[in-house]
């Protein structure tokens, strides 16, 4: 049961010192909300996700504070989760409004239901606030409580307020001018119908395209691997329907994992030169929406998978569990992380084999292990190269959240090359097996695949070292002109060997 704090108690005990001095000014004070207004994120959600990523047990234990009220939960999380507010996305329109009010000689107040320590940290970072108010001592500064506290400070109609949610409606009823930042269209209509002095600020938020981007549909290309076993077994068209369902199911499952990973790595993404533009890191999509998206996509993926052979669901379940372990723990373990990525690639092929009743040969499994390990190591090499080019001088400093050092780069590049060239060797032995030689009219022509794969891997190594690998290697290859040419040549070789 949550504790309801009487408004009178808040008024008597919780108004900050000097609050009354801001009332009665010639220019009305501007009161600014924090979560979803000044910041394009929610600190309660962020603090829980951050703690969940760093110490999942502590995050779950913090939920026990809810029995003492929401403010107690916020305080418990604030004590355990050290958020970097300096990289959090802000709303330019709100910042502009703050600048205009200060230029006119008005006072600016930051008042939020977030824990007071977080609110003060944001105020210190942005600067220019005359008063800071936040939840503390079990008192949740939200809705009617915030309205009463602000009226006590400035009087009814004696201040302007900018907010973003329906929880702000009781506050807007007490203001002179009501500003809406980042709210929905329905909330804008409701506010304008209730308040004659209502203004809607321009908002640079994300629409449906941002939500789709959060699912990373370009990464679905990896799930084309479910077609590989049937294609290698010359049974692709016989099972195309089941494989299409398998592809969609795996794509939705992977998107659920990508969203979860992004939610748990917000701080790391915001510190990255490219990843900071991701929908959750940039604030284009609220983190709380991502939680519901991840759950919904996961349920949909297993709903589709249930229509396929039972073993497919088990393999996809193993993929989800392993990739979740990767998100929470394994990605911070050097070498273990890349081996895990290689296994995740391979599980896609195993799932495709079950969906099409086409078992993988040991040769193909070995080929997959080496080639995917090489690509996973390329991905890590690209991340380290980007930091070298950014001028990171300390080669022994550990990369946050990864466990690698810049000094590891030569070793990782060597391992990637070794794994890639071993993949070529396995392919050559695979082609020479009696089974495969009997499956093609001209099997000797397949050896051109070794030349093409060797040239592709060598080129990818050089590109990565030059710092041109700005994406996942597989996604990069799909977009790369020369990789497309090599892929088309491989397809031509297979056709020539078959006819």
* Number of separate strands: 6
Using the alpha-carbon principal axes, give the shape: elongated
How big a fraction of the residues is strand?
Answer: 5-15%
Order of helices and strands: HEHHHHEHEHEHEHEHHHHHHHHHHHHHH
CATH architecture designation of the largest domain: 3-Layer(aba) Sandwich
Mean pLDDT level: 86
Helicity level, as a percent range? 55-70%
Number of structural units classed as domains: 3
- Tell me the distance between the termini: 74 Å
SSE topology sketch:
Elements: H1 7-13, E1 30-32, H2 43-54, H3 56-62, H4 70-80, H5 92-103, E2 108-115, H6 116-126, E3 131-135, H7 144-154, E4 160-163, H8 169-172, E5 178-180, H9 185-194, E6 198-200, H10 208-214, H11 228-232, H12 240-264, H13 266-270, H14 279-282, H15 287-305, H16 310-328, H17 336-355, H18 362-389, H19 409-431, H20 434-437, H21 448-465, H22 473-479, H23 481-498
Parallel strand pairs: 1-2, 1-4, 2-3, 4-5, 5-6
Helix pairs in contact: 1-7, 2-3, 2-4, 12-15, 12-16, 12-17, 16-17, 17-18, 18-19, 18-21, 19-21, 21-23
Q: Could you walk me through the main structural features you see in this protein, from its secondary elements to its overall organization?
A:
The chain has helices spanning 7-13, 43-54, 56-62, 70-80, 92-103, 116-126, 144-154, 169-172, 185-194, 208-214, 228-232, 240-264, 266-270, 279-282, 287-305, 310-328, 336-355, 362-389, 409-431, 434-437, 448-465, 473-479, 481-498; strands at residues 30-32, 108-115, 131-135, 160-163, 178-180, 198-200. It has 499 residues and is mainly α. The protein folds into three domains: 7-200, HAD superfamily/HAD-like (Rossmann fold), CATH 3.40.50; 208-329, no CATH class; 361-499. α2 (43-54) crosses α4, α12 (240-264) runs parallel beside α16 and α18 packs antiparallel against α19 (409-431). The model is unreliable at 1-15 (pLDDT under 50).
